[in-house]
TrEMBL record:
GO terms for cellular component: actin cytoskeleton; cytoplasm; stereocilium. One of its GO terms (biological process) is anatomical structure morphogenesis. Residues 27-139, 150-260, 272-381, 396-497 form the Fascin-like domain. Keywords: Actin-binding, Cell projection, Cytoplasm, Cytoskeleton. It is found in: Cell projection, Stereocilium; Cytoplasm, Cytoskeleton. GO terms for molecular function: actin filament binding; protein-macromolecule adaptor activity. The keyword Cytoplasm applies. This is Fascin. InterPro entries: Actin-crosslinking, Fascin, Fascin-like_dom, Fascin_metazoans. It comes from Salmo trutta (Brown trout). Belongs to the fascin family.
Length: 497
């Protein structure tokens, strides 16, 4: 059985685990309580206890398991009594089928007992013989809303084709900010937003405003997503460039299925000689270019265990240490020589190769891991290029403007989209209203600054970033409020981005 770490994918990166909240007919979320492994539907917003992970038995059956935030599985007995205490989904009561409705809501049917799961507040059971309103659940995706979108049939990625004003599904790899899709959730519907803040309409055009033609319901089929429009038709890639628009099908087949994959950070390095690190000249990695193209862009993949970093080129190879300290883009697999340590030095970074030496820029621009200490030649400016829109999620929820003050909440189930602007090794974070973030003297992060203030991004873990203010302290969520006062990094300082 798939343990939920990944879904099978033919893509480049890991397909994201599907995590979501389930909202009942009274607009309340299904909640897993730690006490007695009880479940209820009483919460009005989605926090940690309301997040469920979908696991599938295998690709062939439609059986799914619902795992709570405590790692326990939802189960029903033959009398319809529901609990969430099973550590393994091996009992017959854990097996559910999703019966999708035309409005995108789900009914959950016990595969073993054929009864439907529903109810309200503390009165949940799996005993209904037919589907009524109390047995219908809306699906609110809980994963970070920025991802790469892979067409299952075409094995190609979606990207913004700005000249034609459309989304094309014809990229071999998701490269650059154009390949970032933001899924916006509003009242049970989803909107697909491009990196230039436009929405996809069902006719394939990109528009500035939300309308019924830009709203889709999500359906799941064998662990893949389908997007159904307001007319009951599904998004599909059309024609040679794979223009993403609604097709004629009113049932999703393989052409209408997509995977969401995690979008790794992609970065550009500027060396001490003020030139960009590139693979344009062949296999040697050299700082010898004056323009930023795909050849100067590297995908940064952080190893979950060691926290070391790999750099992938747009040709799909990794940087690797070769004899005499040389750095080349010849590795096709991750191995010890492709692993680098990053040292975060404010505006600059230093890279240490697997031989324990720092990477320096030689006179001819070539990178070589031969230095014992960090001087000017070992420093690089690193610029993140594929997050023009910043959405931050911490351990307790998303970052969002506080309703009535200039502070920021860090525990919301809705998010605000901020702009991230690079400035000489630092970043400025722009609020929804066009004002800037700053850290006040009392350590609060405020969102109404007239002039920009420097923040520093440190990619510390797989999928997580630490953000340092100019006071040298890290941003953290503190009982729901975003503060810039942490001296060291703990889980409250790590943000999905």
């Amino acid at each position: 059985m798939d343990n939920g770490s990944t879904m099978p994918t033919n893509g480049i990166n890991k397909a994201l685990k599907l995590q979501f909240g389930l909202i009942n007919h009274e607009s309340r979320y299904l909640t897993a309580e730690a006490f007695g492994f009880k479940v209820n539907a009483s919460a009005s917003s989605m926090k940690k206890k309301q997040i469920w992970t979908l696991e599938q038995e295998d690709q062939d059956t439609q059986v799914v398991f619902l795992r709570s935030h405590l790692g326990r599985y939802l189960a029903s007995d033959k009398d319809g009594k529901v609990s969430c205490g099973a550590e393994q989904p091996d009992s017959p009561g854990c097996r559910f089928l999703i019966v999708a409705q035309s409005d995108g809501r789900w009914a959950l049917q016990s595969e073993t007992y054929l009864r439907f799961f529903g109810g309200s507040a503390d009165y949940l059971s799996c005993f209904a013989q037919a589907i009524g309103e109390p047995e219908l659940w809306a699906v609110h995706l809980a994963l970070h809303p920025q991802a790469s979108l892979l067409s299952v049939a075409r094995k190609r990625y979606a990207h913004l084709f700005a000249r034609e004003g459309e989304i094309s599904v014809d990229s071999n790899i998701p490269w650059g900010s154009d390949s970032l899709v933001t899924l916006v959730y509003l009242e049970g519907k989803y909107f697909l937003k491009t990196c230039d803040s436009r929405f996809l309409s069902n006719d394939g055009k990109l528009v500035k405003e939300n309308t019924p033609t830009t709203s889709f319901t999500l359906e799941l089929k064998s662990g893949k997503l389908a997007f159904k429009d307001c007319d009951g038709k599904y998004l599909t890639p059309m024609g040679p460039t794979g223009t993403l628009r609604s097709g004629r099908c009113s049932k999703p087949g393989k052409d209408e299925l997509f995977d969401l994959e995690e979008s790794h950070p992609q970065v550009i390095f500027q060396a001490a000689n003020k030139r960009f690190v590139s693979v344009k000249q062949g296999v040697s990695i050299s700082a010898n270019q004056d323009v930023e193209t795909d050849m100067e862009t590297f995908q940064m993949e952080i190893d979950k265990e060691s926290k070391k970093c790999m750099f992938r080129t747009n040709g799909g190879n990794y940087w690797t240490l070769v004899s005499h300290g040389g750095i080349q883009s010849t590795a096709t697999e991750v191995e010890a020589n492709t692993m680098f340590d990053i040292e975060w030095l404010g505006r600059s970074v230093a890279l240490k190769a697997s031989n324990g030496k720092y990477v320096c820029t030689k006179k001819n621009g070539q990178l070589s891991a031969v230095s014992d200490s960090v001087g000017d030649d070992e420093l690089f400016l690193m610029k993140l290029i594929n997050r023009p829109m910043l959405i931050l999620r911490g351990e307790n929820g998303f970052v969002c403007h506080h309703k009535s003050s200039n502070t920021l909440d860090a525990n919301r189930s809705v998010y605000d989209i901020f702009s991230l602007l690079f400035s000489d090794g630092a970043y400025h974070i722009k609020s929804v209203g066009g004002k800037f973030w700053y850290v006040s003297c009392s350590g609060l992060v405020c969102s109404d600054g007239d002039k920009p203030e420097d923040f520093f991004l440190e990619f510390l873990e797989h999928g997580r970033v630490g953000i340092k203010g100019k006071n040298g302290k890290y941003l953290r969520g503190d009982s729901g409020t975003l503060k810039g006062d942490a001296a060291t990094v703990d889980p409250s300082c790590l943000w999905e981005y």
